Structures are given as C-alpha cells and as structure tokens.
C-alpha cells in the first residue's frame, strides 16, 4: 500500500517523465530510492530507440555503485514497466536482473503488447503496488494512449507563422518568416520522427525535400519517411522522386481523409520499424483537416515578430463558427518546457486541453456538418 511519502516520490517520477520528448513512445519517468530514503538514481525516456526510464535509472546506479544490493530499494515508475521487446529489451527484465525488491507505478500501460509487466514482476516475487497517483500519471500520455487506441501514429504539427498567423506574404514569398534557430529546432524534431507529411498542393508548389539536417547543413543519418497526402499526382521531376543521398523513401497517400491517411501510415515499415510518429508541416487545408477531426496531439508554433496583414493563413477553415466551439490547447511542459525563445522568435509547445470541447455535427449547420477535407490536391 502506498503512503504520502510514496506519492511524493511518484511526483518526482512524473516530473522526470516530462523531461522527455513526445512521439512514438510514451513519456515515462523513474526514481530509484534506497530503504533509508536516499534517491539513488532518476531516469526518463528520451524517445524511441533510447533506454526506457526504468532501465536508464538502473543503468545509472549500476555505473555509480556497481554490485549494490537493491533488494530493499523501491523503484517508482510513472507507467507500468513494459514486458515486451521492441527497440529496447523489456523493463521487467532489467528490474529482475537488478534485484529490485519493490516497484510502485502510476498508470497501467494501455497497450496489449507492453502491458502485464506488473504480473510478470509479481510472479517473480517483487512487491508491486499499482495506481499511485494514477490519474496524474495517466494524464501525461493521454493523447499518446488515444493514438494507440485509434491504431494511428502520434501527430505533431509544425506551425511557422507571423504574428498575424500568415505563412507567406501576399506575393507568395515565405523564405524565411522564422529565424535560423527556429528552423534548426524543426530539424531536431525531424531527426527523431518516423514520417513527415505535407499535402500534394504544398508538394507541387514548394517542391520540398522534406529532409532532416544537422546544424552544419549535412544530412542526418536518420531520415523520416516523406509523405504526400492527396490525389493530385506528383510531378515526375519533383525533388521527392529524385534519387538523392537521403534515400528513396517517400509515399503518396491518395486520400483526403486524415484518419485513413494515418492508419495507412501505421501499417508502413520505415528503417525496420513501424511508423509511430508523424510530423505534419502543411499546407493550410491539410492542417485544417487534422485539426477539425481532433487528430493533432502536439503543436510546435513558431511565432516570428512580424506582421504581414495579407497572405495565406497557417490553418484553413475547420468549421468553427462560434468561439465556444474553438479547439483549445494548453501549454505542454514536456521536452524543456512550453515556451522557448529562438533568436527573435517565440516557440510555444502545446497539447490539446484535456477539457477541450470536441465539436460534433450539431455545432455546424446541416450543410456544413463533418470535418472539411483537404481539397487543394
């Protein structure tokens, strides 16, 4: 049974979880505490392919105090330790190997492959307590869990705009609205996602490469799968079709339905792994379709200190006709905090507000019910 001290330590695990980036995997924090209350190690998950939080904490203590007896120690985890082998080995395996005697965790793992870790640990004699600050721990990954239920990748949206929400001037010029620091931050995100998506109109007009680059301008070793959504055929001489050092990996999703596009992506393997995290960079009608269907799990909004007054908006019509029906978002403390200053720009990191109103067909006139699709391509 957990007490108030256990809850305090679990809050430290929650705080650690928020240090990681959102994406293919859930945010998880872990705190290892000795019997006398000394904090031995803290870990958090740093994104797909990196050590899980539990394993990171146990690796730290093994490095600083090799051979330490952990049979009287307690490991606090914000999420149930996993029992499956993905890009990393099972956390249950690491806990048992380290000899940890007691494990407390907050939220149950909602995925069928990874859940059941508590049962595995109990079967091996570990004292396991579930549900410590369960609701607080569940909220950390509520959107990730929803993506799992819907069988789709986690969706991050990139908005680079002027103060009045424009992505280009009236004459179409757009390079560059945001600063070099903002663009480098975007490439950091590109370097860790599985796929990057634009509409076929954006692909035709901008002819983008959709690559991930390092600060010196060279290509990152990992390149996301480049995706074009829409039925408009891609030009034969488009950059995405050309053979280049970053590879031939691109796909066209011939649909205007955002959920269908995501579910198709979830069935694709890229670099040996399924697509579990997609970055959507435009255009405005594609973004509108995803916002309208509440499929945006995370936003990085880069605001440049300039006013254009005219020109295309970053997001098109999402069917909202009254303020009470607006999509609402909250500051996201994950991955370094909700607000960053990038040269002269301000980057705001957002997630859907938990109590956000989700419009249904009753919010729109009969002839406008349903989500607007991207018809630009």
TrEMBL record:
<dbReference type="Pfam" id="PF01872">
    <property type="entry name" value="RibD_C"/>
</dbReference>
<comment type="pathway">
    <text>Cofactor biosynthesis; riboflavin biosynthesis; 5-amino-6-(D-ribitylamino)uracil from GTP: step 2/4.</text>
</comment>
<dbReference type="InterPro" id="IPR050765">
    <property type="entry name" value="Riboflavin_Biosynth_HTPR"/>
</dbReference>
<comment type="pathway">
    <text>Cofactor biosynthesis; riboflavin biosynthesis; 5-amino-6-(D-ribitylamino)uracil from GTP: step 3/4.</text>
</comment>
<comment type="function">
    <text>Converts 2,5-diamino-6-(ribosylamino)-4(3h)-pyrimidinone 5'-phosphate into 5-amino-6-(ribosylamino)-2,4(1h,3h)-pyrimidinedione 5'-phosphate.</text>
</comment>
<feature type="binding site">
    <location>
        <position position="210"/>
    </location>
    <ligand>
        <name>substrate</name>
    </ligand>
</feature>
<feature type="binding site">
    <location>
        <position position="213"/>
    </location>
    <ligand>
        <name>substrate</name>
    </ligand>
</feature>
<feature type="binding site">
    <location>
        <position position="202"/>
    </location>
    <ligand>
        <name>NADP(+)</name>
    </ligand>
</feature>
<feature type="binding site">
    <location>
        <position position="281"/>
    </location>
    <ligand>
        <name>substrate</name>
    </ligand>
</feature>
<feature type="binding site">
    <location>
        <begin position="283"/>
        <end position="289"/>
    </location>
    <ligand>
        <name>NADP(+)</name>
    </ligand>
</feature>
<feature type="binding site">
    <location>
        <position position="190"/>
    </location>
    <ligand>
        <name>substrate</name>
    </ligand>
</feature>
<feature type="binding site">
    <location>
        <position position="176"/>
    </location>
    <ligand>
        <name>NADP(+)</name>
    </ligand>
</feature>
<dbReference type="GO" id="GO:0008270">
    <property type="term" value="F:zinc ion binding"/>
</dbReference>
<keyword id="KW-0686">Riboflavin biosynthesis</keyword>
<dbReference type="Pfam" id="PF00383">
    <property type="entry name" value="dCMP_cyt_deam_1"/>
</dbReference>
<feature type="domain" description="CMP/dCMP-type deaminase">
    <location>
        <begin position="4"/>
        <end position="118"/>
    </location>
</feature>
<keyword id="KW-0479">Metal-binding</keyword>
<feature type="compositionally biased region" description="Low complexity">
    <location>
        <begin position="361"/>
        <end position="377"/>
    </location>
</feature>
<keyword id="KW-0560">Oxidoreductase</keyword>
<feature type="binding site">
    <location>
        <position position="160"/>
    </location>
    <ligand>
        <name>NADP(+)</name>
    </ligand>
</feature>
<dbReference type="InterPro" id="IPR016192">
    <property type="entry name" value="APOBEC/CMP_deaminase_Zn-bd"/>
</dbReference>
<dbReference type="GO" id="GO:0009231">
    <property type="term" value="P:riboflavin biosynthetic process"/>
</dbReference>
<feature type="binding site">
    <location>
        <position position="82"/>
    </location>
    <ligand>
        <name>Zn(2+)</name>
    </ligand>
</feature>
<dbReference type="InterPro" id="IPR004794">
    <property type="entry name" value="Eubact_RibD"/>
</dbReference>
<keyword id="KW-0378">Hydrolase</keyword>
<comment type="similarity">
    <text>In the N-terminal section; belongs to the cytidine and deoxycytidylate deaminase family.</text>
</comment>
<feature type="region of interest" description="Disordered">
    <location>
        <begin position="352"/>
        <end position="377"/>
    </location>
</feature>
<dbReference type="GO" id="GO:0008835">
    <property type="term" value="F:diaminohydroxyphosphoribosylaminopyrimidine deaminase activity"/>
</dbReference>
<keyword id="KW-0862">Zinc</keyword>
<dbReference type="InterPro" id="IPR024072">
    <property type="entry name" value="DHFR-like_dom_sf"/>
</dbReference>
<feature type="binding site">
    <location>
        <position position="174"/>
    </location>
    <ligand>
        <name>substrate</name>
    </ligand>
</feature>
<protein>
    <recommendedName>
        <fullName>Riboflavin biosynthesis protein RibD</fullName>
        <ecNumber>3.5.4.26</ecNumber>
        <ecNumber>1.1.1.193</ecNumber>
    </recommendedName>
</protein>
<dbReference type="InterPro" id="IPR002734">
    <property type="entry name" value="RibDG_C"/>
</dbReference>
<keyword id="KW-0511">Multifunctional enzyme</keyword>
<dbReference type="InterPro" id="IPR002125">
    <property type="entry name" value="CMP_dCMP_dom"/>
</dbReference>
<feature type="binding site">
    <location>
        <position position="52"/>
    </location>
    <ligand>
        <name>Zn(2+)</name>
    </ligand>
</feature>
<feature type="binding site">
    <location>
        <position position="206"/>
    </location>
    <ligand>
        <name>substrate</name>
    </ligand>
</feature>
<comment type="similarity">
    <text>In the C-terminal section; belongs to the HTP reductase family.</text>
</comment>
<keyword id="KW-0521">NADP</keyword>
<dbReference type="GO" id="GO:0008703">
    <property type="term" value="F:5-amino-6-(5-phosphoribosylamino)uracil reductase activity"/>
</dbReference>
<dbReference type="InterPro" id="IPR016193">
    <property type="entry name" value="Cytidine_deaminase-like"/>
</dbReference>
<feature type="active site" description="Proton donor">
    <location>
        <position position="54"/>
    </location>
</feature>
